[in-house]
Write a structure and sequence with these properties.
single chain, about 425 residues, Cytochrome Bc1 Complex, Chain A, domain 1, 5-stranded mixed sheet, globular
Length: about 425
Amino acid sequence: MKYDIHTLENGLRIILAPQAGSKTATVMVMAGTGSRYEDPKENGLAHFLEHMFFKGTGKRSSAKVISEELDAIGSVYNAFTSKERTAYYAKVSDSYIDTAIDVITDIFLNSTLPSKEITKERGAIIQEIDMYEDMPMRTIDNVFDALMFGTEHPLGRTILGPKENIRRFKRSDFSEYLKKNYSPSNTVVSIAGSFNTKKVLAKIRKEFGGLKPSPVPTYPSFTHAQTSARALIKQKKTDQTQFMLGVPAYPYGHRDEYVLVVLATILGGGMSSRLFTEVREKRGLAYSIHAWVDKYPDVGSLVVQAGVEHAKLAKAVTTILSEFRKISRNKVPLTELRKAQAYIRGTLTLSLETSDNVAENAATSLINTGRVQTLDEILRQVDAVTANDIQRVAKDILKGHQLNLAVIGPHTDEKLLVDLLKI
């Protein structure tokens, strides 16, 4: 796939990714900002602002008007906030691309942020926080991030923020955050699917070209300095213990970035992976278990997540650690390595079939790394990984003093858990 990238004079970047044979198009505007750019008093503001963008513009007076216009064309539309990105998008049948561009552009550039809607939306966001609090599988990552990064660092704080902040934010807080963090130079307009390239490019240039240049926002960097294993328990009455076990790893652009991806896949990618086989199939300790890699421009982590019976937490953790030891001490057989590489090839190829995933992947890559890697580039790096590479990286990151165990459930003894964390 070809990615056609244009940079306006104000620094805003446009990605055009035409897909032959597609009947859909996705319009996404992504700003390189999120909860990582907040101080403690601002925590939750980026996500709240995302909600407010849909509450009305000068041209479209309310959330109802915006949603009715997009619903009338059968659009799939939404927005999301992460630690380093905030995005707004609409996926449509290609015949409605003009409407998608017009609406998404309008809410991004012209939201009025009405005070009365801020007051009403507080309640909705507090209910969103409460909803996720009732879903330990969805909030265990908050506990893990607090353990891994510490709550004094933005990466260790939640994206939704604390309720006391949500209740306190004023319209001036949103305006100030918007002015400080939504810069043309950290904004990407990404369009993928079926569309007229010349017409779309002209439209985006016209709408976004008038934005005044402004400084790119900055965030505090993070450097791991962990010297001993750590555990953190969020005590909660639950039917199941949810946990995440992980170690610091590599950021975007590291020379072993894709070795780490293959390593995570061997451990916990798919239903024939080592952890799925050992934890679920052989021992029946969990319904699901998976491993993955989290990456930021300056830091990363390798993480395993599972849910188990309360009494079987220790057994599940020691089983995972046993697999960590094995992959560090013994080379991966060639057949298993090739299976993992084929798994990555298949899942990545499937994920980039749809216009929404193509648009998001391209925008994320450009914001985080300054370029868009093609699928072929990524797969070449995956295919180049050797068994020696896997063992070398496993030895580098899977160390006892770097282990972090986050738990949600009716447990109280963190020291007991720390004592399990040995490789």
